[in-house]
Amino acid sequence: MPLINDEEVRVHDLLKVSCMNKQPDYTERPAKSFKILFSLLFCGVTLVLMLAALIYSAWRGQRQLDSARPRQSLAALGQALRTFQAQEGRFPADLRELDARIWKGQRAAQISADGSALLAASGHYTYTYQRVSSVKAAVWATPVGPRYEEAATHFWYLTPTQVEKWMGPALTPQNVGVVRTIPSEQQLRWLMMTEQLPSTRTAKRSKTGFSFLPF
Description:
A 6-stranded antiparallel sheet has the order 1-2-3-4-5-6, with helices on one face. It is built from 6 helices and 6 strands. The chain has helices at about 5-20, 30-65, 75-90, 95-105, 185-190, 200-210; strands at about 115-120, 125-135, 135-145, 150-160, 165-170, 195. It starts with 5 loop residues before the first helix and ends in a 7-residue tail after the last helix. It is of the alpha+beta class. Helix 3 packs across helix 4 (about 95-105).
C-alpha cells in the first residue's frame, strides 16, 4: 500500500481550501435583490410625485387664469335698483343710498367716494350708475383687470317696468370715459354695441322703432 507523502498532503489541503472558498454566498443574493427592489420602488414613487406636481401646477395655473376672467353681475344690480324704486317710488340718488337700503351696508367698501361706481374686484367688473329721474336710471358694466379685453361692456337703461340692454366689446382707455354719460343710440353703435332684444319685444321694435333711451 503506497504511503502518502507530505507533499501530497499539502496539495490536498490547498485544493480543499480552494473549493471551500469557491462555494457561493447565498446570503448576498437576498440583500442585492432588496436593494434593486428598493431602488425601483423609489424611482416609481419619485415619478408619481413629479407627475402629481406637474398636474397640480397646471391645474393651479388654469384656475388662476379662470379667476382673472371678468364675470358680470349686472342682473343682480338691476334687480336691486328696481327693488329700491318699488319701495321708495324713485331710483336711489347714488349707490351709497342703494347699499344702505337694500344691501344693508355690505357693499360700502366697494363703492366709490362719490357713490357713482361700484368695483366688484372678484368679478373684475366696475359698475357705474346714474339716476336720470325718479323713474329712469342707467348703469354701465365695464370689465377690468388683466383679461378685460376678453369680456363685454354692458349698458342698461332702466325704468320700473322695462330694461333696455346693450352689449359690446370692452371699452378702451381712450373711450372708457363714456361711462360718465347717458349715451344716445347712435353713440352706443359707434362703440360697436348692439341692443339685446328679448324675443317678446323683437317684433314690436321692428314695427314701431320704439326705444326709451333719452335722445
